[in-house]
Amino acid sequence: MPLMKSVIYETMRIDPPVPLQYGKAKKDFVVESHDAAYEVKEGEMLFGYQPFATKDPKIFDRPEEFVPDRFVRDGEELLSHVMWSNGPETEQSSVANKQCAGKDFVVMVARLFVVELFRRYDSFDVEVAASPLGAKVTLTSLKRATF
């Protein structure tokens, strides 16, 4: 099951379920990147676009490519760079950090969906295309499992 779990995280890394976040700074602080630091003043509006972080070539080898086993074994360390609202996958949700309360539920439902797809069908074909909202995946044929 580690490979299947990695596939779910890789899917969310490539095409985050909520790619845009915004908020107002509650205090002065500094945002740091690989190359620079930015001062943010209390009250300023902030906007975040997750794919800038989840497709960072300084963190992820072949960032635009789907790599199913990216998060297996030593790759699990990269989960700290898979973002949810207000933080990485490796943090727990709390009132203090306002981390997405449903993040673990979303991952579980996605994993169950993949398990159910492979349990019910011996084979399937998909068509993958670009879409204004990200990738568009269409199931074009299904062959029911025979037991």
SSE layout:
Elements: H1 2-14, E1 20-24, E2 29-32, E3 37-40, E4 45-49, H2 51-54, E5 83-84, E6 87-88, H3 103-120, E7 121-131, E8 134-144
Antiparallel strand pairs: 1-4, 2-3, 5-6, 7-8
Protein name: Allene oxide synthase
Keywords: Fatty acid biosynthesis, Fatty acid metabolism, Heme, Iron, Lipid biosynthesis, Lipid metabolism, Lyase, Metal-binding, Oxylipin biosynthesis
Binding site for heme: 100
Instruction: Say how many strands there are.
Output: 8
- How much of the sequence is in beta strands? 25-35%
* Average pLDDT number: 87
Walk across the major sheet and give the strand order. Answer: 1-4
Number of helices: 3
- Helix share of residues? 10-25%
